[in-house]
Design a protein that fits this description.
The protein folds into two domains: 9-66; 68-285, MetI-like (MetI-like fold). It has helices at 2-46, 50-53, 68-78, 84-115, 121-131, 140-150, 157-164, 167-180, 183-191, 196-207, 209-224, 240-248, 255-285. The protein has 13 helices and no strands. Helices cover 73% and strands 0% of the residues. With 291 residues, the chain is an all-alpha fold. The termini are far apart.
Length: 291
C-alpha cells in the first residue's frame, strides 16, 4: 500500500511538472510570435506587388508574392551618381570604427570610474549621468559648431567621434564592472605582478563580456542607421541610410522599393543581434572567472 502511494505521488508530481513545462513553453511561444510579427510584416510588405501595398484595410500577409520590389530597388541604386557600393563601404567603415571605438573607450573609462578612486571621479561620473538626460536633437547645434570648429565637416569623423563618446555605453559598463568584477581578484592580480593594462585585457574584459557584447548590439544598430547629413555634404561620404532615404522620397511609385529597402536595412543589425545574443547566452551559462 505504501509503495502504491509513493508511485502515485511520483506520477502526480511528474504530471504537474510536464503540464507546468508545457504552460511555460506556450507562454514563451506566444511572446516569440508576438515579437516576430513586425519582422514578418516588413518582409511581407517587401514581397507585395504595388496594388497590395495600398489595399484598405491592409493585409498582414502577401497574397501574390513577387521580387519586383527588390529588382526595382537595385535598378534605382544603379542610377545613383555615386556607385551604390560606395554607400555600403562608407556605412561599413563608420559602423566598424564607431563600434570598436565606443566599446574600447567606454570600457577603459568605466574601469577607471569603477575600480579607481581619483580626484573628481564622482563629479565627472555625475556629468555622465546628466548627459544621459539630453536628447540628441538638443545637442545637435552645439555638436555642429564644435565639429565645424575642428574642421571635421565632410569627413568620416562626425559619424565616428560623437558615438564613441556616448554616455550610455560608459554608464552601462561602469555599473556592470562594479557588480561583476570583485576587488579581491584585482588585488590578487596586482600582487602577482600584473600591470593595469594586463588586468584590464585579461581579467576585466572577459568577465564583463555580456556588457560589451550588448554594447556592440546597440552601437551597430545606431551607426548602421545613421545619416548625419548635417555634417557631410559630399556624396562620396554619405551612408547607405541616406541613399535609401532618397529612394523613399520618390513618392507612391517607389513604395515597393521602399519596402524592400526597409528589409535591406534590417539584415545587418538582425545578424549582429543573433550572433551577439548567442555569445551572451554562452557567457552567462558559464562562470566569468575560470581557474
Amino acid at each position: 500500500m505504501m509503495k502504491f502511494k509513493l508511485r502515485l505521488k511520483r506520477t502526480s508530481h511528474i504530471n504537474r511538472s510536464i503540464w507546468g513545462d508545457l504552460f511555460i513553453y506556450f507562454v514563451f511561444l506566444f511572446f516569440c510570435v508576438a515579437m516576430s510579427l513586425p519582422l514578418i510584416y516588413t518582409i511581407s510588405n517587401a514581397l507585395k506587388p504595388l496594388n497590395e501595398l495600398f489595399i484598405f484595410p491592409p493585409r498582414f500577409l502577401v497574397q501574390n508574392p513577387t521580387t519586383r520590389n527588390f529588382s526595382q530597388l537595385f535598378e534605382l541604386m544603379s542610377n545613383f551618381r555615386v556607385p551604390f557600393t560606395r554607400y555600403v563601404l562608407n556605412t561599413v567603415i563608420i559602423t566598424a570604427a564607431g563600434t570598436a571605438g565606443h566599446v574600447i573607450f567606454s570600457s577603459m573609462a568605466a574601469y577607471a570610474f569603477a575600480k579607481h578612486n581619483f580626484f573628481g571621479s564622482k563629479i565627472l561620473f555625475n556629468m555622465v549621468v546628466i548627459a544621459l538626460m539630453f536628447n540628441s536633437s538638443v545637442t545637435s547645434i552645439p555638436n555642429f559648431l564644435i565639429i565645424a570648429k575642428l574642421g571635421w565637416i565632410n569627413t568620416y569623423l562626425p559619424y565616428i567621434i560623437p558615438p564613441i563618446a556616448s554616455a550610455l555605453g560608459l554608464y552601462l559598463m561602469k555599473q556592470f564592472m562594479e557588480q561583476m568584477v570583485p576587488d579581491a581578484l584585482l588585488e590578487a592580480a596586482k600582487i602577482d605582478g600584473c600591470t593595469e593594462a594586463r588586468i584590464f585585457v585579461r581579467i576585466v574584459m572577459p568577465i564583463v563580456k555580456p556588457a560589451w557584447v550588448t554594447l556592440i548590439i546597440f552601437s551597430v544598430q545606431g551607426l548602421w542607421n545613421m545619416s548625419a547629413t548635417s555634417f557631410v555634404y559630399s556624396e562620396k561620404l554619405k551612408t547607405l541610410n541616406y541613399a535609401l532615404s532618397q529612394i523613399l522620397a520618390g513618392g507612391v511609385a517607389r513604395a515597393g522599393a521602399g519596402a524592400a529597402a526597409a528589409v535591406l536595412m534590417m539584415i545587418v543589425p538582425i545578424v549582429i543581434f543573433v550572433i551577439s545574443q548567442s555569445n551572451v547566452l554562452e557567457t552567462m551559462s558559464t562562470s566569468g572567472m575560470k581557474g
